[in-house]
Request: fold
Amino acid sequence: MNKTCEAGINYKDVEVTNKKPRKIPCIKNSLIHGGTCDKAVFPTSKEAEKQVMEIMNEGRKSMAAHKLVTDHIAKTGQEKGFVKCPECGGQLNYTRTSMNKHIWAKCKCGLGWME
Reply:
């Protein structure tokens, strides 16, 4: 998506092209594929654990909100509407497609998803 990384390195300058698929050295297991980057920085185990916990927490919030929406649809039959957002108490707007029953939902607090 970008031509350079956050350290300012141009990806084309460091890409390992003699392997398939092509590799970029700053990926953690790059030594297997050749190439290194002295500016590569990886999270500590503690930082990685924190990131994983944040992702899992966001997933739990989305799943709880999804259940609220699907329960509401089952009760009311409304394919489009809103429920009270479990995160902020605001309005979690949703739409469920009639074609495949996928749900799109979004609240002003940022909670939302698209199936």
In short: The CA atoms of residues 21 and 33 lie 10 Å apart. Residues 57-114 form one domain. The radius of gyration is 21 Å. The first strand starts at residue 80 and ends at 84.
